[in-house]
Design a protein that fits this description.
The chain is an all-alpha fold. The chain has four helices and no strands. Helices cover about 80% and strands about 0% of the residues. Helix 1 (about 5-15) crosses helix 4 (about 60-70). The longest helix is centred in the middle third of the chain and has 18 residues, at about 35-55.
């Protein structure tokens, strides 16, 4: 995942509200950064595919993506 998208992902995880779905938090974050809906769709699709391959929910998959990207850096 591109660095800019990883930053959006980290921000979504940080600002997620209690009992809010991760997808809602991601959408809110993308909008607050003035990105287009296509960015949200692309990110959600990538995270969903990753989640399915690891048998995780989207929030857990997002956290895994962030932690793996930090290990690579």
């Amino acid at each position: 995942m591109e660095q800019e998208l990883l930053e959006l992902l980290k921000d979504a995880l940080k600002t997620q509200r209690r009992k809010e779905s991760f997808e809602s938090a991601l959408g809110r974050t993308v909008r607050s950064h003035d990105k287009e809906f296509s960015v949200y769709v692309r990110m959600a699709s990538e995270i969903r595919d990753f989640a399915c391959s690891r048998r995780q929910d989207m929030e857990s998959a997002a956290r895994t993506i962030v932690s793996e990207s930090e290990k690579e850096a």
